[in-house]
Write a structure and sequence with these properties.
The protein has 150 residues and is an all-alpha fold. The chain is 51% helix and 3% strand. Helix 3 (36-43) runs parallel beside helix 5 (77-85), helix 6 (111-119) crosses helix 7 (125-134) and helix 6 runs parallel beside helix 8 (137-146). 20% of the residues are buried.
Length: 150
């Protein structure tokens, strides 16, 4: 049997109310369904006043984002929930929206892009995508030669 889901309006309403006992009041199946990743996506974005939109993004990044998915926090879902309750300013229910992930670029698997990623390992994906559309195979070969690669 699939895990019991927590209704989205129930969990987001508890977040906006700063209900610190919400996680304790979930039944065991709902506790298993609690997803910090989904909470990050929903908690950080609202539709409404631009100042509140900015507040939610900044607050989520400050209170909930650092280390929420890194060890040892995944072993402490109640603590994760408490971090999320710190995000809300407590001014009532907000209209939380889902942030779509950007689609992968068409050339994400190209050999040219892979070569650029080897040459510039610290370069961001977006920059690699743009650069891979601007350079030629001949230029990549010259770069690899300059960096001592074959």
């Amino acid at each position: 049997m699939p895990a019991k889901q927590i209704p989205l309006n129930k969990i987001l309403s508890a977040l906006d109310r700063k209900d610190r006992d919400f996680y304790d009041n979930l039944d065991p199946d709902e506790k298993k369904a609690f997803s910090p990743f989904l909470m990050l996506r929903y908690a950080s974005s609202i539709k409404g006043d631009p100042e509140l939109e900015h507040y939610y993004i900044a607050s989520t990044n400050y209170y909930a984002n650092p280390g929420i998915l890194e060890s040892p926090l995944p072993k402490h879902p109640k603590l994760q929930w408490l971090m999320f309750t710190a995000v809300s300013p407590g001014v009532g229910n907000m209209n939380h929206v889902w942030i779509k992930q950007k689609p992968k670029p068409k050339n994400a698997g190209s050999a040219l892009r892979k070569d650029l990623a080897q040459i510039y390992p610290a370069m961001k994906d977006y920059d690699l995508d743009v650069l891979s559309q601007l350079v030629t195979r001949k230029e990549i070969t010259a770069l690899k030669k300059d960096y001592g690669e074959k």
